Amino acid sequence: MEERLSPADIPAQGTSARSVLTIFRRRIWIIVPVAAIILVLAALYAVVQPQIYEASTWVLVADTNKKSALQAVMSESDAWGSLQGDVSMHIRLIQSVEIAQQVKEDLHLDMPAPVMLYYVDVTKVPGASEKLLSVTYQSQDPKQARQIVNAWSKAYEEDSQGRATRSIAAAIDYVTTQIETVETDLRQMEQEMIALEQNYIERGVSISNGHGGARMTAIVGQIAHMRVEAAAVQAQIAKTNERLASEPQEIEEVEQQPSHRARAIEEQLSALHVELQHKLQDYYPDSPEVEGLQEQIQRLERELADQSEMTRSTVTTAPNPVYMNAQDTLIRLHGTLDATRARQSALQTQLAEQRSLQAMAPEGSITYSELMRKVGGLQKVHGTLLSRQYELQLKRAMVVPPVQLVKEAAEPRAPVSPVYSTIFGMGLLAAVLLAAFAAITVDQIDDTFAGPDEVRDFLGERLLGVLPEVDSHEAQAVQVGGPDDSGRTAFANSVRMLASTVRIEMTRRNQSSIVVTSSGRAEGKTLVAANLAAALAATGAKVLLVDADLHRPRLHDLFNLEKAPGLSHLLVSEDSADDVAQPTDIENLSVITTGPLPPSPVDLLASSHGKEVIKRLSDAADFVIWDTPPAGFLADATVIGHSTDVALFVVGKRAKRGATRQTLTNLREIGIDIIGVCPNRVSPVGGSYYYYYYYYQDYYGDTQDGKR
Predict the structure, then answer these.
(1) 568: Cβ–Cβ under 8 A, 6 or more apart, which residues?
(2) Residue % of the chain over a pLDDT of 90
């Protein structure tokens, strides 16, 4: 029996979550309208969308990226030719305003060119060559879509061919101009050479056959080159020296390890942070539990920051690889500088010898040699330009359009938009998501319990019984054992089940007094206490029901008794329970009403005499049931609970989850033994065990003729 009555494993407080299916079942009244509205809007959207047709053509980009050696001489006009094979460039040009304007003029359209660009698209054909492009155009008229996309592709084909022809013509003009300029320079230099040679011939010296000037000029050029090379090496040596000065010869490697104390504090901080996150789910940020954890975290963080020996370090040294590399580079550079200076010294010696030989020759030989070099260079340029001119002329005669239309568009037969399956699918998805969001949002705003299962899971307490909803007139009288007892009503039988569980549990514990309380008002605790007392009295046990709600008493109305004398007389006098207890119509059940309401009930109950009265009354019968005010905002229940055995917590239909759990937590923390909770005024919901009791009662209960 003891194992049968022990509470089942219950999820820890703060980790329970509301079942999604429970939320959806409870909020079906908002899910269905929201989903229906979204689906209707999606259907209306699909209906009002115009039908769009798409026509497409294929254009092929010519491969003109092959270059020859003769293209070394190019003009700015050749840029177009070098970009003809760039597919991305063609995609941008096809979608240009100029082409749209040309199509508009060719087809005599009233549509603005920027608007036409919005409906045209150019992409690479999937699975085909990278040079094959697809040009598409969308329109509500399938004939117009085919007409525009064909005209668009032809317009760009003509435009690209015109650009290619113009670029070749411009390149030919540029090369021809350069050839004329080079020929003019050649004639001028040849005339200067003839005049210089004729002048020295008249003096009896021939400078055309002498090579001394050219030799000396070459040596001077080599010496200048050696000087530049030596200066460059010296600059590199200076930079390498600066790098060596800024780099240490050795580097230190420091290994740090946290001390055992630091690791212990960090692990403790990690555990406290996790506990703080769990507390924040159950308590407010300014609650004592959360503030206590935060103070512990701050204290450990200060201790971690104040410790001076939290780490140990190991320092090792190693050669700096950057410094060693710089040293090797410096040695190489010094070797290169020495070799360069040696070659420069040898060239200086050769130059001195050559100058001694040239002292006898006229200076005109040097000028003549320089003119010969210039003429030779111009002759090479002239030959290159002539070849380039011939190539461009041949290219103009064999010009290939950069873009060719390879497939014209056919008239589309089926629209590409709207896609009704996609719209319906998106609408269905939006309907499901928005309906679920609306249900969850409303459920989060409504902080009441969805049912007994959630009461058990959320509060982490055992359910001693579940009481169904009763009519308002039934809530004004005792339903079990009284004159209005209907025998087999759902409420009466539920109370009897609750009384049976309470009786067995308290007998097992050898306890007799029980406090009945709740978190807030209007949760039905007084009705539960009265019917529980009547059900226990029906078992033959002596039951004393005490109305300890000295603020809003109701027991005297339920049993139709006098309000005075009552509990307040016992709290201020030495009277006994027999002096104030009133018998009822229910056998074995006596009731102590409140009596006159005192100005400060909690002070009377908490006094030494009040505690003595509570203990004395708790032993006055086999079962003593105390009906107390709500424990969520009055301290009377906690004062009485300290002097009694256990407490039964009633959860009403409109009880708030947060307030209820907070009240239960407070009762546990001050040491009150909670025997269990009792959901009250529960509506029958499919899927719960008490739903099947309703079904059983309706099916096997009283019939219209009174037979069973």
Answers:
(1) 550, 594, 595, 596, 597, 598, 604
(2) 9
Q: For residue 395, which of 67, 60, 59 has the smallest C-alpha distance?
A: 67
* CA atoms within a 13 Å half-sphere pointing along the CA-CB vector of 422: 4
Minimal CA–CA distance to 562: which of 583, 538, 539?
583
Confidence of residue 136 (pLDDT cuts 50, 70, 90): very high
DSSP structure class, residue 286: T
> Is the pLDDT score of 625 beyond 90?
yes
| Structure token pair of residue 397 | 């005669």
- Count Cβ atoms within 10 A of the Cβ of residue 363 and give its class: 0-12 exposed, 13-18 middle, 19 or more buried: exposed
Give the separation between CA 677 and CA 647, rounded to whole angstroms. Answer: 9
Please give the mean pLDDT across all residues of the chain: 78
Residue with structure tokens 């546990």?
A: 668
Q: Look at phi and psi of residue 524 and say left if phi exceeds 0, alpha if psi is from -120 to 50, else beta.
A: left
- The mean pLDDT of 191-197, rounded to a whole number, is 80
Q: Is the pTM here over 0.90, yes or no?
A: no
Contacts of 12 (CB under 8 A, 6+ apart): 460
Query: Which run of H or E residues covers position 382?
Result: helix 364-397
Q: Report percent pLDDT > 70 for the chain.
A: 79
Which one, of 403, 500, 332, lies nearest residue 162 by Cα? 403
Residue 308: what pLDDT?
Answer: 55
Q: Distance (Å, rounded) from C-alpha 435 to C-alpha 628?
A: 43
Q: Is the Cβ–Cβ distance between 416 and 54 less than 8 Å?
A: yes
Q: What confidence tier does 201 reach under pLDDT thresholds 50, 70, 90?
A: low
- Fold classified for 462-700: Rossmann fold (3.40.50)
Class of domain 53-167+401-407: alpha beta
- The tens digit of pLDDT for each residue in 434-452 reads 888 877 777 777 677 777 8
Mean pLDDT of 202-231: 68
| Mean pLDDT, residues 206-212 taken together | 54
Say how many CA atoms lie within 13 Å of 525 toward its Cβ: 32
Q: b/e per residue, 401-437, with b = 16+ CB within 10 A?
A: bbbebeeebeebeebeebeeeebeeebeeebeeebbe
- Give the Cα separation of 556 and 581 in Å (integer): 12
On whether the CB atoms of residues 151 and 103 are closer than 8 A, the answer is yes
Cβ atoms of 569 and 575 within 8 Å: the answer is yes
- pLDDT exceeds 60 at position 69: no
User: For the chain, how big is the Rg over CA atoms in Å?
Assistant: 52
What is the Cα–Cα distance from 135 to 155, expressed in whole angstroms? 12
Q: Where in the chain is CATH 3.40.50.300? A: 462-700
> Cα(432)–Cα(389) distance, rounded to whole angstroms?
72
For 124, the token pair is 């690479």
What SS3 state is found at 209? coil
CA distance 242 to 250: 17
Q: Do residues 54 and 141 lie in contact, with contact meaning Cβ atoms separated by under 8 Å?
A: no
CA distances from 399 to 75, 163, 174, 258 (A): 18, 11, 18, 77
- Rounded CA separation 668/55 (Å): 76
In DSSP notation, 356-381 reads HHHTTS-THHHHHHHHHHHHHHHHHH
Sequential DSSP letters for 636-698: HHHHHHHTSSEEEEEE-TT-BHHHHHHHHHHHHHTT--EEEEEE-SBPP-TTSHHHHHHHHHH
Residues of the chain with CATH 3.30.70.1130: 53-167+401-407
Contact between 651 and 677 under an 8 Å Cβ cutoff? The reply is yes
Six-digit token string for 552: 């809003």
Residue, of 65 and 652, whose pLDDT is higher? 652
In which band, very low, low, confident or very high, does the pLDDT at 209 lie, cut at 50, 70 and 90? low
Q: Above 80 in pLDDT, residue 32?
A: yes
